[in-house]
Amino acid sequence: MRSPIPDYLTDVLRAVEPDQSGATADYIPELAQADPDRLAAALCTVDGHVYSAGDATAAFSIQSISKPFAYALALADRGFDAVLEKVSVEPSGNAFNEMSVEPETGRPLNPMINAGAIATHSLTGPLGATPDERVARVIDGLSAFAGRRLEIDESVYHSEIRHAYRNRSLANMLRAYDIIADDPLVAVAGYTRQCSVLVTTEDLAVMAGTLANRGVNPLTGRPVVSAEVVRQTLSVMATCGMYDGAGDWMTRVGVPAKSGVAGGLIGALPGQVGIATFSPRLDRHGNSVRGADLFTRFTADMGMHLMEVPPAGPSAIRSRRIIGPADDEVALFSLQGDLRFAAAERVVREFQENPPEQSRVAISLRRVFSIDAVARRMVLEAVRRLTLDGHDVYLIDPDTVLPDPDPGTGGRVQVLHDLETFDTP
Amino acid sequence: MRSPIPDYLTDVLRAVEPDQSGATADYIPELAQADPDRLAAALCTVDGHVYSAGDATAAFSIQSISKPFAYALALADRGFDAVLEKVSVEPSGNAFNEMSVEPETGRPLNPMINAGAIATHSLTGPLGATPDERVARVIDGLSAFAGRRLEIDESVYHSEIRHAYRNRSLANMLRAYDIIADDPLVAVAGYTRQCSVLVTTEDLAVMAGTLANRGVNPLTGRPVVSAEVVRQTLSVMATCGMYDGAGDWMTRVGVPAKSGVAGGLIGALPGQVGIATFSPRLDRHGNSVRGADLFTRFTADMGMHLMEVPPAGPSAIRSRRIIGPADDEVALFSLQGDLRFAAAERVVREFQENPPEQSRVAISLRRVFSIDAVARRMVLEAVRRLTLDGHDVYLIDPDTVLPDPDPGTGGRVQVLHDLETFDTP
Amino acid sequence: MRSPIPDYLTDVLRAVEPDQSGATADYIPELAQADPDRLAAALCTVDGHVYSAGDATAAFSIQSISKPFAYALALADRGFDAVLEKVSVEPSGNAFNEMSVEPETGRPLNPMINAGAIATHSLTGPLGATPDERVARVIDGLSAFAGRRLEIDESVYHSEIRHAYRNRSLANMLRAYDIIADDPLVAVAGYTRQCSVLVTTEDLAVMAGTLANRGVNPLTGRPVVSAEVVRQTLSVMATCGMYDGAGDWMTRVGVPAKSGVAGGLIGALPGQVGIATFSPRLDRHGNSVRGADLFTRFTADMGMHLMEVPPAGPSAIRSRRIIGPADDEVALFSLQGDLRFAAAERVVREFQENPPEQSRVAISLRRVFSIDAVARRMVLEAVRRLTLDGHDVYLIDPDTVLPDPDPGTGGRVQVLHDLETFDTP
Amino acid sequence: MRSPIPDYLTDVLRAVEPDQSGATADYIPELAQADPDRLAAALCTVDGHVYSAGDATAAFSIQSISKPFAYALALADRGFDAVLEKVSVEPSGNAFNEMSVEPETGRPLNPMINAGAIATHSLTGPLGATPDERVARVIDGLSAFAGRRLEIDESVYHSEIRHAYRNRSLANMLRAYDIIADDPLVAVAGYTRQCSVLVTTEDLAVMAGTLANRGVNPLTGRPVVSAEVVRQTLSVMATCGMYDGAGDWMTRVGVPAKSGVAGGLIGALPGQVGIATFSPRLDRHGNSVRGADLFTRFTADMGMHLMEVPPAGPSAIRSRRIIGPADDEVALFSLQGDLRFAAAERVVREFQENPPEQSRVAISLRRVFSIDAVARRMVLEAVRRLTLDGHDVYLIDPDTVLPDPDPGTGGRVQVLHDLETFDTP
């Protein structure tokens, strides 16, 4: 069978292809000369499969799409407090080349605007790293996100650095406020190198996929940053990633995203997929025209919107039965599905509202596929309370979805692989 | 067994209780006199169970928490285009009493700031509704969200309207820009009535629960607004709900939320739970001090953060086996879990990468608990393509998780309740 | 002889007449309907002669030109401190309908923007005056500036008040900040009445002439406000009178001025002349197009620019001679011209550098036409010091340009009407 | 006799001396170390006499006081249009280190803020001048204003340039907008050298005196810039010289002024005097605390306020008599004082209202001390019209206050030195 996904990608590219509105960035000669007709899309699943269509292996400079990844690296290298002290996380409501800093402190409003991104670059690598070491760290880090060795496009770098007056203006202001400690020219050089890294649309999909996959590269399986860092990074992308159209993006597309002036655009759907598109013509906000259109279609077609509530599944409690011999009955509660807070609450409520009369209580997890941290805590607390109420409690967990159960003080539980124990008299 | 959830709520209230920082709103006499020590929290699950602790049945005025609900009502009553024409959806980055409108058009930046909320109030009810009819519509609508008849606190209304100069200033500016068509005094009176509706913390939890439950009130089971309206409303809450601290809230708490000057605070976790807290002392942003603390704890304890990627569950493909008689084998693919895009993709890929050699292909949904729209489309497309490849395709779906399967042109599928068909020769 | 001044005015009107650029104010129906071709200019000398040309007796509403006069009345009625507490004097750099208030206090930046003008109106009349009494006070005051009874154009008032949403927005904000104490609707009504007063171009010239004449109406001879109030008013007109083009106006025209949306424009050259023009078409700043052109020509033709340094006149010391009998010589210093600081300094320096050897010193003021306060003090101090040095000092002051001379402790002076005293032996 | 002026200066310094509020600029180490107690004042009359008191010969860096002078030099070197194209003249209403540029063009709002001053520095010298040549031009120019050779304080320069991040930020932004064409680092170096020029309080008084004296250095008698350039420069000082307190300064002090961060402060009273003070402690606006106090006292004591209307002098027409033989009478009009527009108008009006019956008309200028351009034109026009009316017209002008009289087409005038002509039959 031929997978319908490449067909879908091809179809959707064809649908947006006629739109020639917008223009390539004109302030960087190297970008202005880019072929404006190139068009690509790629998806990377959290288990590492990449789908793509169009010019998905054509290379272009990463530009601002490097910002969330460098932010993630800075958080990983220096910790949250050190980074938040220098760069805030508030939407700026301003265009991408404005000086959006807090009035008193000079702290950039967020890491997705240039002022914040220059400050963020300077927070990568260990404390005391030299500028060269920081650039090396960022390229290593971006490569780890992409799952292959990335390189700087020196001609793009030189084309940009020659006209980097706005960024130098920002860097000098940051230096004046002691937000960065480096020489401003050096800081801008490092940041511009970061922006000049060459990527393909497929690379970007993998990088976004790493964010969707809790910081573990789905291709290589290697952890790049922690889940906490990913959560912070995706949050900032959600509120600040699309410049002054953040609210419009969140309502229409609903996926944390970031665009770059070379025409790239990424989005990450936590736990599911990383997405990337490429089309160099930009709208007046600096976002890729056809890229934004593609994402709008992806959301409509793939149900990616963060605020899209999935229809309610079946109850977490599949059945409640009495098993075992008449004189030694067992109250068996069979759970099912993925247990998160809402499901665990339902289970706990069942024990409360209709407490089992039997002294033995078995909870079957055979049809449970995952339990998150809060559901685990709730189930174990229920076990503990059942114990304290005088019950003997059993977990039927053949696939070990709830490993090492410890119900805490006063609780006790016995793990079984099947129900046979109860069948024998 | 006693449920651990009320205990949890009680514990967490006790933890935040000593914090007496902040102050009640002083610009509305009726609010300034409120008992600043009151404290409550409540949860409402999507199947309608309400947990609460503290002063959860004490009544207070809803204030700005009415904004997202009135926005939802306006979207429902007038449609997205009519509402977006008058009120944008961009973060303002400003304090709650500023005039945050687009410079040329006077369009308020979003419906969560006062200017936008006054404009939104004027968009409730059918086109041509009188001011009184609009107020009636809003109270009816808020009541539908709460699941019981709500009333205006006339003394709060009169206390506020006497000092409503800022709102009148905003309303006159909106009138000057033709954003509203009413007399500004009348517009402010209507909006102030909306803010004076009395609610309890439990009411607010149910209202938030209605948002978490795709617009259907979990208590009454009655639909209040559509899923599309809920998606838009939650998106705007996510980027604009917490005034100028939207980015901080999104990173730390990660739940769409809205606060009110009387001390209420709500959050909605799509598909899972509505949450409300009440504590009248406010921080300098106008958000409840202890309420914000409670939400931070809920996020940490309950894994509610929108960007929290749940750990990957087991593969969507539980097993792949050959069954049936040797001369008429059936390739049986057993799926499991909740099927969304990522899971469906995995299934489709399996068919592509390892196409079954058998002419009969069965897909078992016995251990599948839910399928969202995109996964449904993908599974059916796979069925269609398998048919076109020459296979006979069967869905084993005893619980009808995929009702009315139609694989489209050229596709064909037979639905079975169990595997017995294949067993008989 | 026919005076060349009316001919000049006629010529200059003819020169600007062909310019039909700009447009009448469209947001007030009554103004939009005004005949856009009307054109007038008038001058009022400080001794009360009025020259005019064009439609100089056509009546139109005073609009914003009332602002400096109402400001002067408020300063006169309440004192500087009370007015400055509520309205600052800083340029706003903003368009005329913006809310330009200090962020913390809500104090309008200056009395020439609408927010400041509404606040200023509320500061006219005695403390405790009713709104009606304030309106009466302002009309009386404007009439005193004009030298005739002015009336409100009720149709203009009603046309404006019906659409006064922007001003009501401002008034409500001012009320919220306690800058005004009145009901905002009443405040706007009063201010709008002030703006609806009918004037002719000749009236405006007399009103400006009153400012040029230290607050004394040059026609009626009646004092309207004090010289200190005039100084403050002209200073504010100089920095804030021409909206966001204040700097351009100061460099090009160099005269304190104020424009109105009905097409009027006034300027006052301290000590010399009041000027008014009328032409309803406005530029994008809201200033009369041909009016601004006329003022630019007046400055070029009449040398009115405040920073225009007149060419140095002859020395203040016309001659120094020895007169009188040989045994009783008198050192006679003949001064000339208008004595201000620079001239008086020159005189004092002469006494210091070339002290007279004669015991008798006579200072002739026969050719001195005026002495300002500082020059008077300096001359008298010189007299005192000459006395202390042992001289007998005489002032020859036939026209009493230095009345009641009192040289202070240790000083002594004898006033003579001519030099004959010294001629007799 | 000892002049009272030095005594006055000494007294007024003593009066402000106890005020130790404010602080020296802390962001430039070399300035932070300055002796904060130093205090000086100096006056320079338009005929070149310098009075001073306190530490008036102590040297300090000129800092921002260089701005108006560099602006004058740029206007002189490049012309008004070229300078206005790059630097506007509008008040900024902002603090001195803000980026106050027009949003679209990047044009700095005025030459008194740093952005504008950096741009202005780059406009000094001839088009195509090298950076070094521009610095040389500025030092030469400042020296010409001061009347002696000024030097750069290299230690101040190096102290400032090391921390000039804000100015470099501004210069890079200016470069990004093509307001300057130089390398931003070089532009800041040149501007910082300009600010590091050493001056004394007496130097500053002479520099201000040059502005008061129509651009001619009162000490050396050498013209530095034209009267038109001075008018423009003083106008900009009036509206933009005192940062965000421009309106307050204009109302209270009323003299075009400029302050520097080293503690200097200058003011120029056109046609009369240049003033300078020195006291290093600054208020929060960056203006010298005691310097501002001194200027307030100077205004009160010396009547310097630009809007201070001098009391009306006597009529410009001293007398009107009939002289000469009965059969050949002469109508003699004796004028007096300084003739500017208002006086000339009075004279012209006399001819119009009471036309002489005699065929011979004599106008005596014996008691007239100066005639400005407009008065000259008006008197000559009156002469022309009297001629056309059939009169023979005579000017009695023994001191040649109206040289080369040419009444224009149809006019004729005879100049006499005295009245004797008429006495002889």
UniProtKB/TrEMBL annotation, chains A, B, C, D:
STAS domain: from which residue to which, for each copy? 328-396
Q: Which residues bind substrate?
A: 64, 114, 160, 167, 191, 243, 261
Provide the E.C. number(s) assigned to this enzyme.
Answer: 3.5.1.2
Record's keyword terms, sorted: Acetylation, Hydrolase
Keyword Nucleus tagged: no
Q: Which reaction does it catalyse?
A: L-glutamine + H2O = L-glutamate + NH4(+)
Q: How does it assemble?
A: Homotetramer.
What is the protein's given name? Glutaminase
